[in-house]
Design goal:
The protein is α+β, with helices and mostly antiparallel strands and 873 residues long. Helices cover 48% and strands 20% of the residues.
Length: 873
Amino acid sequence: MDTKQEQLTVAGMTCTACVGAVERAVGALEGVEEASVNFATETLQVRFDPLRSDLQRIQRAVAHAGYSAEPSHSRKRLELPIEGMTCASCVSRVEDAILGLDGVESASVNLLTQRASVSYDPERVRLAAIREAVEAAGYRAGEALRAESSDRGAERREEERLLLRRRMLVALGFTAPLLMLTMGHMAGLGLPAWLAPSTAPLAFALVQIALTLPVLVAGLHMYRRGLANLAHLVPNMDSLIAIGTGAAVLYSLYGVARILGGDGSAVRFLYFDTAAAIIAFVLIGKYLEQASKGRASRAISELVSLQPSLALRVEEGGDREVSVEEIEPGDRLRVRPGERVALDGVVLEGRSGVDESMITGESLPVERGPGDPVIGGSVNRDSALVVRVERVGADTTLAQIVRLVEQAQADKAPIARLADQVARYFVPTVMGIALLAGLTWLLVGASVSFALSVFIAVLVVACPCALGLATPTAIMVGTGKGAELGVLIKGGSALERLRDVKVVLLDKTGTVTEGKPRVTDVLSLSGEEPDEILSLAAAVETGSEHSLGRAIAREAEERGVPRLTAQSFKTLPGRGIEAQVGSRRLLLGSRPLFDARGMSIPEGEELEALSAAGRSLVFVAADDVVLGVVGIADALRPDSAEAIEALKGLGIEVVMLTGDNRPTAEAIAAEAGIERVVAEVLPEDKAAEVLRLQEGGGCVAMVGDGINDAPALAQADVGIAVGSGTDVAMETADVVLVKGSIRDVVTAIRLGRATVRNIKQNLFWAFAYNAAGIPVAAGLLYALGGPLLNPMIAAAAMAMSSVSVVSNALRLRWFQPGPRTHLPSAGEPEPDAKKEAKMVSIELEVEGMSCAHCVGRVEDALRKLEGVHEVSV
């Protein structure tokens, strides 16, 4: 059965109880296989059978639970000039034509400006289809004047932040004078006789009502959602606030009724200030929380902003600036220095340094020339390039990375299930404790006012908001940081498993090694110069399709040896090749070929050393005389030994798993510092080897790059694919290393450990806060002679608990991959620190400068910092 997966943005959730309510409502639908809500990202990941359910039914279920949901994919907005419109009927026809397209969300046509403003989903409809619809209606669509992208989730979060800000300011603006009215006497502030509670109790009460009403309106959404959830028997944080403050307001209204009846002493029953202060503090906390969550989810918005909305397309009549939506595969784009590459492609003309740091995490620009790939979103640094577009829309590297990060941030780690289970029963339990505590104090003789204060304090202090934010915020920041470093982690589950990795299996070819055979040695066996031997071999191998032949030709080109021309080729399948170079008859091939021809190969220690090192040997003979041998090997990646050393430093066992022959595998393993080698393993047997290691105990991570690694990647507890590998491997893996360096395996594991540690800290403080706060609010310390927790202080503490959890998660944004771990071997000179360091250039905006003297002071201050080499203000 084919299933469909969708991500929706859910509005209205305030705590983990809301998460459970949404998951239960959607999960109960027929055809829904899985529903997972992430509180921090406010997203719902749902997998369902499209034949038995649909998006509209899911949205209705969320709405019935008291919330709202809409697809969280990005949309595009543009203004399209329309030619040929003459009246309102034309406007209607154009709008209907555009709105009739699947994927168009809104279309508004202005007859006066002759423009159509269109909002659409680029994954469901292309700009070309909108143009065709307009032209089919009898009009002509011009060039798009403006095209921009907006992420619905980010847009909605910003709107909610601004709304919360307005509500918070209203609540603070009226709560501050209310508290001055009721508590000013504590600060020595007196009230005029016409307002004092002792001389004018009714005026005192009415002014409090007037100041409290705007605060209640500012917090009306909490009452609406809280009571609705209570009616659905799924109480949440808003329910606690609504019941607590509602009880305070009702009790205060009872006091006002007593005052109206002539009982001036009833001013002691007024709790308007408590209700207003609680609402104000909750709004402050929610606003700070929303702002912090926005910073936590910045990774996606930064990635989305990398793609430019316009590009310079090369056409027969000259270059023309067009919307990115109009570009199709095969189009040629001109990318000027300082501009971003619009879409994935291949360089046709020009050579330049390209900054891919925001996509791959690699800080240094990479050289790109004809035939080299470029990634959409990267920055062209030096000179103009002409690029042929290969991938557009959702197929681009940037779009795939954004999709992976979104899915990862919405994923729920196993450790989060604990918080979910607790939250399901937490709010009802708190309501029971609050009621029990209030009734107990009444039974032991306390006043109604005292019991009400205890009841409200317990409800307010026990908000489960911090509990709900503890796990998803850490996952959101951790996966975002990983993307920034070029390590794509597909969700919280993968992050948690990374923490437990005990064994790392490394494929050899393309993972530990470069995956491209290179000439390592040219050994003369006849007194001939090595460059002459290489020149003769390259003449025969130039144009060869064999990997060893290409390696010889490439080495000759890099060394700049004389280029000779060969003729009369004769291929000896599986053994070698014969050719004529000038007057000499050449033979290149393996030892069995030479043995079969009866040609003696001079033996020696150097040749034995090459064989022992696992080199592939290509012997070169001229006129039946063996001249020498070319040693070829798949060279070790420059950072493999360093990465393996770092893995060992983390207490992880490293094993090489390869289908190559054992001598070659052991030679590469020895060079890389790997002690354990499993060689000559068939592709179909790699997964069985992973299973065998898993049965031996410990969490196993498999690192590979090829199709033959996909089963092993799927079998491993954590599958890690190098970004330079195949799409199948990257699709199967839990982690993708965008830069293709196994040094980032260390980064991934360290990041996983740091994130899980952060989650545990958050959960500890969230649980500890509630465990300590509820007894204090219930009056336990007061019963022992200590203080009673004021409901207003409880509200402030509750608000700050959520902010503290999010702030702790945000510390992961400063996670660093760690220092280089390479140690020089005996006799190797110490590396020069300045050469090892990567130079980074940054631009900072400096405020407050007003003259050249300020410039000099800023430059002098920065130059004093260690590691700063150049400053220009």
